[in-house]
Automatic annotation (TrEMBL):
This is MGAT4 conserved region domain-containing protein. One of its GO terms (molecular function) is acetylglucosaminyltransferase activity. GO terms for cellular component: endoplasmic reticulum; endoplasmic reticulum-Golgi intermediate compartment; Golgi stack. It holds the Pfam family MGAT4_cons. PANTHER family: ALPHA-1,3-MANNOSYL-GLYCOPROTEIN 4-BETA-N-ACETYLGLUCOSAMINYLTRANSFERASE-LIKE PROTEIN MGAT4D (PTHR12062:SF10), N-ACETYLGLUCOSAMINYLTRANSFERASE VI (PTHR12062). The lineage of its organism: Eukaryota, Metazoa, Chordata, Craniata, Vertebrata. GO terms for biological process: protein N-linked glycosylation. Residues 52-327 form the MGAT4 conserved region domain.
């Protein structure tokens, strides 16, 4: 009888301990939501749609066909979906110089609370340097904690296996092919980010990690998009520089990515953007003047520009750039 009583007491204590452990783990998971750093391997759960968007990469890159699921290595945030706007920022290590904090501060601080709720800013770390990834994560989790908690800001990291072999060659400053590889990688970085953002929002805005935005830029964008008379626009330019400030309909992103991947070795992505218009929108035998007129109707340029390039230290090591948007 005494032995049975002791066994019952032990069972009760073990049950209390187990319940306490479960309660502790649930609390820990809740507290750790802001510090989430996960390796995405074989369990995607609600991200299955995003997984499907990456499948087109296997058509262009044979080395990915045995890779299983393609997905970002690291995700910090709540993987927010169902919003109107996704804003994509691809970032790489620029040595001792970084403009990312200034860029993010400009982008997120100039949104109203309702605009922040209806959008997600995605920072894509496209760099193999783990120290740089850690520095980006540390900076964002400290400086933009509220945005991470709300889901309006998240960080992803592009897996190294995504890139073809040509980009895995160790580069030197004297390497004559490094500029070409840098350009190729930049196209691929943008494509990966666009595919990740595609299921999240109705529209996708491409930005870079060394820009600033005008005050009320987001209000101006939403008002312009909602009041635009033509519904057949190809994309809208909110900056004339490169690939900065280009707004796309998310439903069109897969087509853009397919085209970019067909010619990613041939031209920078901003020039490919002009080429896709010629291919898709200019009819055979049509005069250049007629095509140019249609260009104005569906490739819409917003003025004044809402974004300015502020970086001097290029993402291509050892180079500097001083380009400015004259319409800003």
């Amino acid at each position: 009888m005494l032995r049975l009583k002791n066994k019952t007491e032990r069972n009760r204590q073990e049950l209390i301990k187990a319940l306490s452990k479960m309660k502790y783990e649930m609390t820990q998971r809740k507290n750790m939501s802001i510090n989430l750093v996960e390796k995405k391997i074989n369990t995607l759960g609600k991200s299955e749609t995003a997984f499907n968007t990456f499948e087109i990469l296997k058509f262009f890159f044979p080395h990915l066909r045995k890779a299983g699921r393609i997905y970002p290595d690291v995700i910090i945030g709540k993987e927010k979906t169902g919003v109107s706007f996704a804003l994509g920022i691809s970032t790489v290590n620029r040595g001792n110089q970084s403009y990312l904090k200034q860029t993010l501060n400009s982008i997120v601080s100039r949104m109203t609370p309702s605009e922040e709720k209806d959008s997600v800013v995605i920072v894509s770390v496209a760099d193999r340097n783990e120290d740089y990834l850690k520095s980006v994560v540390d900076m964002i989790t400290k400086r933009f904690k509220r945005q991470l908690r709300s889901g309006s800001l998240e960080i992803i990291s592009i897996p190294a296996f995504f890139y073809p072999n040509i980009l895995h060659i160790k580069q030197s400053m004297e390497d004559s092919g490094r500029s070409e590889r840098w350009r190729i990688k930049q196209v691929l970085d943008f494509c990966f980010l666009m595919l990740y953002a595609q299921p999240k929002a109705m529209y996708y805005l491409q930005l870079e990690d060394d820009i600033i935005a005008k005050k009320t830029y987001f209000t101006k964008i939403t008002d312009f998009v909602h009041n635009i008379t033509s519904k057949n626009w190809f994309y809208i330019e909110f900056s004339i520089l490169g690939f900065i400030g280009k707004l796309f309909k998310s439903e069109d992103l897969t087509d853009f990515v397919r085209f970019f991947l067909m010619f990613y070795k041939d031209k920078p992505i901003d020039l490919l953007l002009g080429d896709i218009f010629q291919v898709k929108m200019c009819n055979p035998g049509e005069t250049p003047e007629k095509c140019a007129e249609r260009n104005k109707q569906i490739r819409i340029q917003y003025k004044p520009s809402l974004f300015q390039h502020v970086g001097i230290e290029s993402s291509l090591p050892g180079e500097e750039q001083y380009s400015k948007d004259i319409y800003y």
